[in-house]
Amino acid sequence: MPNSNKLTIIASLLIIIFTNSVTSNYDDSFNEELFIKPLPSGHVSAHFQFTTIWNIPKETKYLEHSHLFPRGLAVIIDRHNIDELHISLTEGLWRYKTWGYPVVDAGPGTEIYAWFNENVKNVDQEWKGLTNALSGLLCASLNFVDSANSMSPAFSFRPLGVNSKPYNTSQLRYSSLPREIVCTENLTPFKKLLPCDSKKGLSTLLNSAYIHNTNYHSVGIHVRLICANSACTKTSIELKQTITLVYDNMIDYNQDWSIRKLFGMGLQGSCPLATLSNIYIDTSTNNTVHIYQLTPKPGDVIVSLRGGQRHEIAVYDVKKFTKNGLFSITAVHSKSRTTSINYPAILSANRYVVGFGQEKGSLVTKLYNNHWQAIDVVLLENIPWYLSVYLHTIKITRNEENIEPLVVKYSPGKERLQPYYLELIIRLPAHSVTKFSIEMDYLFLKWQEYPPDANHGFYMGPAIITAYLPIARNYTGLPIDGSTITSSFNASRPGYLVQLRTETILISLPTPDFSMPYNVICLACTAVALAFGPLHNISTKRLVLKIIKTDWKGKIILAIKAKLFGDKTKQD
Ligand SMILES: *[C@@H]1O[C@H](CO)[C@@H](O)[C@H](O)[C@H]1NC(C)=O
Ligand SMILES: *[C@@H]1O[C@H](CO)[C@@H](O)[C@H](O)[C@H]1NC(C)=O
Ligand SMILES: *[C@@H]1O[C@H](CO)[C@@H](O)[C@H](O)[C@H]1NC(C)=O
Ligand SMILES: *[C@@H]1O[C@H](CO)[C@@H](O)[C@H](O)[C@H]1NC(C)=O
Ligand SMILES: *[C@@H]1O[C@H](CO)[C@@H](O)[C@H](O)[C@H]1NC(C)=O
């Protein structure tokens, strides 16, 4: 009897668990997409996007039980009451002039910014907690983010998600760590956040050996709140995990590329949890820059008209194509690349430092507008506290002619407490090169503040240039109301938001001669070592006179003994 009782209890428990898991409706979805674009410069860019949408209000009781959404991230969002979070880990520089615009902009190094809920009172404390938690989640050194390298820019960032109240930038924090780079140890935790991990689906293509030898690679995590219905009475949480790669395809003679060549392996199947699992190839440069055939033939070819630009896109549904096993897409060129005129992107920028010596310098940012209209841009300069800049030295010129900025927002840095924050709104005239420059002094730090390789120099984070482009030429970004790459097809809008990031700059600050103490130590040690032996020898040994008594009789006896008994006695 007790046995059967136990069985019924177990059975009923199982039934309860089973029915629970079936009835509890998680109401979430996952999409995986890969967008490949052969660039006019001969490079090939590949952009992975994994989108998880979770239709729940952002409240603790819902966030505790996740299904497709990574629980580790859900807990962090809940704990720190975040409305929006953007992290990117990037190696390499996106070349806007020759590659156009990426789907997601990211500056070299690590960049993070977050919008905290308006109920968060002590934003700085939550920011510190958030970056520490994320550094554990992503194995990145985000714990180096503190108030000395964080700021709340007034114009450059707007919440990308829905907001019930007008936003207040006091809830925003932005920071960049230009020295942090992405590597394998960041990729593994990134893949762990995906519902299928790296077991199945497009994420199986993310092999570190084929990612870290690209010209540019960027890993991004973007969380925001979006409207759950058209009236926007309910919100959902959207998580976009992105990886952008740029391969140099010019080193090969025949320029052919394939999924197997780019990622080291073919695709075995789609993630079973994914609703949409697609590969898109932008074939617009076929017949102008290259001529190639795709094998196998795409399942569908769609035309996207966006902001006056026509794009032809080949679509492969991974679910269909992997039915018969391993699958790879190959582009076979019938003619080698023709050197055509590469029209540069309409807005681009670069930054450098002029001056010599280790005391003073001048920071120069050049903004290029190739459009026939004037474009208003927001320029955010993020200058670390150890480079003191002088506001009165700002010069904005175009062919020796001064340009007045429309708005200047500045807050001076404080040593070890806050960076210099400078934000300007500048109107760039049509077809122009505008030069912004500011003078700065290099500070002499305390000796403990230098990193172990002090003579390597210090990195300065990228400047951010934000603009609304009037046309979508070379633009691949998603519209603000879209979650998947599919939503960017035919998405014509009045303006196209771009945020360009400039180069990070390596500055050699005045460095004390760290080799001096080292030399002194070496010299002193050598002298001590040389002196120690004889001194020790002399001071520990007693000098005794040794008297050797030998007369001629003894010598003879010894000699005879030696003759008679051989060597043995001689030794005795
Ligand atoms: C930008 O787009 C134009 C027209 O679509 C194209 O001719 C040009 O090569 C593109 N430039 C870049 C840098 O992608
Ligand atoms: C933004 O928040 C800060 C601090 O909470 C407050 O002082 C400021 O008035 C707010 N600004 C607006 C426009 O609401
Ligand atoms: C590229 O153009 C050639 C010639 O017009 C055509 O045969 C080929 O199918 C095109 N390739 C793609 C991928 O559309
Ligand atoms: C985009 O619009 C064009 C013209 O209206 C249409 O032919 C095309 O099918 C649309 N593409 C998509 C993906 O909806
Ligand atoms: C120490 O002294 C002895 C003789 O007193 C000498 O043979 C030996 O080489 C000395 N050792 C050193 C390290 O100077």
UniProtKB/TrEMBL annotation:
<dbReference type="Pfam" id="PF04113">
    <property type="entry name" value="Gpi16"/>
</dbReference>
<dbReference type="InterPro" id="IPR007245">
    <property type="entry name" value="PIG-T"/>
</dbReference>
<protein>
    <recommendedName>
        <fullName>GPI transamidase component PIG-T</fullName>
    </recommendedName>
</protein>
<dbReference type="GO" id="GO:0042765">
    <property type="term" value="C:GPI-anchor transamidase complex"/>
</dbReference>
<dbReference type="GO" id="GO:0016255">
    <property type="term" value="P:attachment of GPI anchor to protein"/>
</dbReference>
<feature type="signal peptide">
    <location>
        <begin position="1"/>
        <end position="24"/>
    </location>
</feature>
<keyword id="KW-0732">Signal</keyword>
